[in-house]
């Protein structure tokens, strides 16, 4: 087993993220709409950021899809904590959900979005 880089996800946790968050993103945007919207995730250090991507709405904007952050899950002390992003892109701890070792519970909270901080 390779040594863990400080601030990175342990290998087994990363594989779980790739499977579970990957499935969550796939389920969130049906395949027949993927030319109009994609839900993706990015891993950086111990953070997993869920993003919504949309194609440019005007040709003169170029080919790059827009990127809007939805939620961030941070793995600290073997638990997942949720964060939401304000309009300036600053992350804030989502204090209505206690950090949990259960990744699926954290994803369920993002999906339910009782405060409309994640999906609007």
Q: Can you offer a commentary on this structure?
A:
- The structure is a single chain.
- This protein has 120 residues and is α+β, with helices and mostly antiparallel strands.
- The chain has one domain.
- The chain is 23% helix and 30% strand.
- The chain is globular, with a radius of gyration of 15 Å.
Topology, element by element:
Blueprint: H1 11-28, E1 38-44, E2 47-54, E3 66-76, E4 79-85, E5 91-93, H2 103-112
Antiparallel strand pairs: 1-2, 2-3, 3-4, 4-5
Short précis:
Helices cover 23% and strands 30% of the residues. It has one domain (11-112).
Notable characteristics:
disordered N terminus, five-stranded antiparallel beta sheet, 120 residues, 23% helix, alpha+beta, globular, 5 strands
Instruction: Tell me how many strands there are.
Output: 5
Globular, elongated, flat, extended or rod-shaped: what is the shape? globular
Instruction: Give average pLDDT, whole number.
Output: 92
Strand order of the largest sheet: 1-2-3-4-5
The fraction of residues in strands falls at 25-35%
| Gyration radius from CA atoms, angstroms | 15 Å
Order of helices and strands: HEEEEEH
> What separation lies between the terminal Cα atoms?
41 Å
The largest sheet is: 5 strands, antiparallel
Tally of alpha and pi helices: 2
């Amino acid at each position: 087993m390779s040594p863990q880089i400080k601030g990175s996800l342990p290998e087994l946790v990363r594989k779980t993220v790739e499977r579970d968050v990957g499935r969550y993103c796939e389920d969130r945007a049906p395949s027949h709409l993927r030319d109009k919207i994609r839900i993706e995730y990015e891993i950086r250090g111990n953070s997993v950021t869920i993003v919504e991507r949309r194609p440019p709405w005007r040709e003169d904007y170029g080919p790059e899809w827009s990127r809007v952050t939805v939620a961030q899950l941070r793995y600290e002390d073997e638990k997942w904590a949720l964060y939401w992003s304000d309009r300036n892109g600053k992350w804030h701890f989502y204090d209505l959900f206690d950090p949990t070792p259960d990744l699926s519970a954290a994803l369920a909270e993002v999906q339910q979005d009782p405060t409309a901080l994640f999906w609007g």
